[in-house]
Amino acid sequence: MYNELGLLKDYNTKIDIGGINMNRKLSIQASQLAKAQTNLDYLQLILEKYNQLWADAPHKLIENFSEEQISFLMYGILHNQVSNGGFIQLVHNGFANYIFDSPLIASLKDWGAINLAEFLTRISNDCLMVSSKLNSSDKTLETLSNSYLMYPEFEAYDKEFYSNDGAMEIKNYIYNHLRDFILVV
Q1: Per-residue pLDDT, 136
Q2: Could you give the CA distance from residue 172 to residue 153 in angstroms, rounded to a whole number?
Q3: pLDDT at residue 24 is higher than 60
Q4: Residue 57 has what pLDDT?
Q5: Distance of alpha carbon 151 from its chain centroid, rounded?
Q6: Which CATH number fits domain 2-184: 1.20.1540.10, 1.10.8.1000, 1.20.1420.60, 3.40.50.2300?
Q7: Of 71, 127, 138, 179, whose CA is between 20 and 30 Å from 32?
């Protein structure tokens, strides 16, 4: 499934596209991380670097990401989608399989975000079922708006996510394994 996004799993290889070493682009200054006020701020600073690579060339530049880096990117997508429009938006925008049928949940457990991993496991069948229904329909704003009415139980899922988004546990894990995620300069 990650291969659909062009994401393969061996980050130990040098990322060198067009003569430009992309490892330099996946770096952050220590002073930037030190300014983070919250766990989520810390994660967002790193995710910004991932998202820049993604925006520049989504399939080419991150094809060498490790499974953990891919999972972290997927966590960023999960958090951004749910924070902006809930699980309905995440499903509507086609990210359900990348979140629920991927190594993300296993990575979350490894990172200590057990409650978030268990929550995602519990709601995965509902999200994947709705995803299969929405994927066969049109992707209009009207469809998105109607989905909120058709699946009111997703509002409770959104609230539960907001109460435990796993940011503290994930930040602690990444802090202790920073060199696996980004180069600090």
Answers
A1: 67
A2: 31
A3: no
A4: 66
A5: 23
A6: 1.20.1420.60
A7: 71
**Which residue is it, tokens 């469809």?**
143
| Alpha carbon distance 54, 49 (integer Å) | 9
What the block records as the tokens of 81 is 């989608």
CA–CA distance, 30 with 85 (Å, rounded to integer): 32
pLDDT at 124 over 50: yes
Amino acid in the structure at residue 91: V
Residue 92 has pLDDT above 90, yes or no: yes
Q: What is the pLDDT of residues 41-53, one digit of tens each?
A: 999 999 999 888 8
147 neighbors 139 (Cβ within 8 angstroms): no
Judge contact between 42 and 171, C-beta under 8 A: yes
